[in-house]
Amino acid sequence: MIRDYFELCKPRVVMLMLLTSLVGMLLAPTEHLSLNIIFFGNLGIALVAGAAATLNQIADQHLDKIMGRTQSRPIAQGKISTKESVIFASIIGILGICILIFKINLLTAFLTFLSLIGYAVFYTLYLKHVTPQNIVIGGIAGAAPPLLGWTAVTGSISSFSLLLVLIIYVWTPPHFWSLAIYRLEDYAKANIPMLPHTHDIRYTKLNIVLYTVLLLCVSSLPYIVQMSGKLYFIGISLANMAFLFYAIRLYFSNNRKYAIQTFHFSIYYLGILFTLLLMDHLI
User: Fold this and answer.
1) Burial class of residue 65, CB neighbours in 10 A (0-12, 13-18, 19+)
2) CA distance 268 to 208
3) Rama region for 200: left / alpha / beta (φ>0; ψ in -120 to 50; rest)
4) What CA–CA distance (Å, rounded) separates 132 from 56?
5) pLDDT digits (tens, 9 = 90+) for 144-173
6) pTM above 0.70, yes or no
7) 271: which DSSP letter?
8) 79 phi and psi angles, rounded to 5 deg
9) Are 157 and 151 contacting, i.e. CB atoms less than 8 angstroms apart?
10) Among 60, 71, 230, 275, which one has the highest count of C-beta atoms within 10 angstroms of its own C-beta?
């Protein structure tokens, strides 16, 4: 049962979010970074993210039951009831916000709450079902963690913190559209207007390539604006070439296995990017 509740929180997604929020904290300008801020900041963000993930599964349970990718989720399997899931999401969500209010600052708590509303309500209940640009418009909510980490330390928003948000925002479309191509039948069965379903696969592949090229430019900005140094630039340049290879190979191939490979690499890419930012900063 505990494992089922843990799975409700989408732990692998939350762990990647915490990496980006931690990097946001460590890159923020401060003379003394408190371990309390690192611990309670990431704890609060993780709890709210887990609540948002649970609310997403509550709202989408009827879709999860018919999609192969999501059929094993706890609510879809009937392992946890809707009522129990709502109570769980409420508890961890309120706890997370309270931790951020009383142990961090009001700005971080407010932005984290907005992210929860953006993902669990605006994206899940509305955008996801009305436009093939759902990922593009709703991506801002998922791109917030490094900003939250930054504001947890400084109590303010800066252009550097927004640059970190921009990187994840531009990364999101090629990441999700690759999965949408691979799971085309799933999304069609659930009547979710993902781009390869509403337009066609070729058009989606072109958009993946174009967004990847844009990501190459955006991911170089930390070096250009002197937020990071040569270690980051060399490392991310290599990662960018690899991402572009995956995107172009997907575009010219009819083999959908390349779509899931591109999706998986995109996850590694984001982890590599934020790890490089952290290593460059520490060294």
Assistant:
1) middle
2) 17
3) beta
4) 18
5) 999 999 999 999 999 999 999 999 999 999
6) yes
7) H
8) -75, -30
9) yes
10) 60
